Amino acid sequence: MAVETRSIEKQDIKENMNVLERTQQVIKTALQKMRSNENTYELLKEPLRLLTVRIPVKMDDGSVKVFTGYRAQHNDAVGPTKGGIRFHPDVTEEEVKALSMWMSIKCGITGLPYGGGKGGIQCDPREMSFSELERLSRGYVRAISQIVGPTKDIPAPDVFTNSQIMAWMMDEYSRLREFDSPGFITGKPMVLGGSQGRESSTALGVTIVTKEAAKLKNIPLAGAKVIIQGFGNAGSFLAKFLHDAGAKVIGISDAFGALYDPQGLDINYLLENRDSFGSVTHLFTKRLTNEELLVKDCDILIPAAIENQITEKNAGDIKAKIVVEAANGPTTLKATQILTDKGVLIVPDVLASAGGVVVSYFEWVQNNQGYYWSAEEVDEKLEIILTDAFLSVYQTSVQKEVDMRLAAYIVGLKRVVEAVEWRGWV
Ligand code: GLU
Q: Is the model's pTM score more than 0.90?
């Protein structure tokens, strides 16, 4: 069934809005649709807190480099804030703020007892040694330690951060507080209190919602032609899960280019040969650009890399019937409108990529209880939560006659809106 969309007024959408303005626009429209109290938008349009820190790090050559980092806490009315930390040269204050707001929506859609948070450091981990990264990770925790903690704000991995970085951060926090604090951070290695299934949880979540979307569009997943942009943590596990489910992965890409084969790519070979940052295409001479890959013929397109990949410029050329946003913010609002008008079913980022934070929540619960679950238990619970989340977003989009992104925000904001009202904040 096609979903009608006229919900965000065309004149309100400017293509050059930054991620924060875009997020504010969708929150504003969602709150209007929910007929919430006017003060609620004033409160939710920015994070409650944003800490900017400068982190001096001794580099291996003896010099000192000072890095800029942020931690944003969108809203803690529902519970402590939660969200990852990214290490990337393009990290900005606006981006971290918007990402913390998206985390509130993700936690709301999946019913987790958290508000959204996010952190980031402007750096390029691809150019840093292991020991420089360790000093940077520990320095960041010392700099933000006053505002984080297992019952305040719980970080996790994000772009270019991993379980090793979480381990150093957990160790630094435990030393500062002088007690073992596994619940301070999620995405840890198993031996330090990590959860079964956390590493592949974002991809498993994307797979679960992709299956639901394919059912709605009557596209059998077995044999469906899939293109995945990005081969990092989410993209690579995703290629494997979808390949194992019988889908034909015909395109993948990384920061250097894209591989495309209408007969299906050799996913196992690519997985074995990718490096820890997800680069693999440089091993091939016949490559496409990322832009060329996005508009190739396929049934399901999964942007799993970075922001602003599907814009007003290329949305009209997208051939996919379903776009599942495994990355945060890959589609602009104008592009969302163009795709929805063409009858493309969009599974928005705040829903599609929520598997990571759901299993992070399971990890935190296990840390608090000191009792650990099996991989099957984790996967089953994730499937129940995400299937329900997908259906409630889809039903909201049909009932309120809005696109899937706006529907996701309406569902995701419900708990925080109720919580700020009960607490008497608005
Ligand atoms: N960084 C991930 C996200 O954007 C995971 C956050 C978490 O596990 O807290 O959803």
A: yes
Q: What is the CATH number of the domain that holds 236?
A: 3.40.50.720
Which residues neighbour 302 within 8 Å (Cβ) at sequence distance 6 or greater? 206, 210, 226, 227, 228, 229, 235, 238, 323, 324, 325, 326
- Choose the residue to mutate in 360, 364, 385 for probing ligand 1, maximizing ligand atoms within 8 Å of C-beta: 360
Best mutation site among 357, 358, 367 for ligand 1 pocket (most ligand atoms within 8 Å of CB): 357
Kindly give the number of the ligand 1 atom that is closest to the alpha carbon of 186: 8
- Centre of ligand 1 to C-alpha 196, Å, is 16
Of 352, 383, 414, the position where a domain reaches its end is 352
The domain of 104 spans: 47-180
Residues 236 and 345 in one domain: yes
In a domain, 324, yes or no: yes
Cβ pair 366, 373 in contact under 8 A: yes
The yes-or-no verdict on residue 276 having pLDDT over 90 is no
Annotated catalytic residues are 118
pLDDT digits (tens, 9 = 90+) for 137-171: 999 999 999 999 999 999 999 989 999 999 999 99
pLDDT per position as a tens digit, 61-117: 999 999 999 999 999 999 999 999 999 999 999 999 999 999 999 999 999 999 999
Which residue puts its alpha carbon closest to atom 9 of ligand 1? 83
Is 93 a domain residue? yes
Reported as a single tens digit per residue, the pLDDT across 190-212 is 999 999 999 999 999 999 999 99
* Burial track 137-154 (b if 16+ CB lie within 10 A, e otherwise): bbbbbebbeeebbbeebb
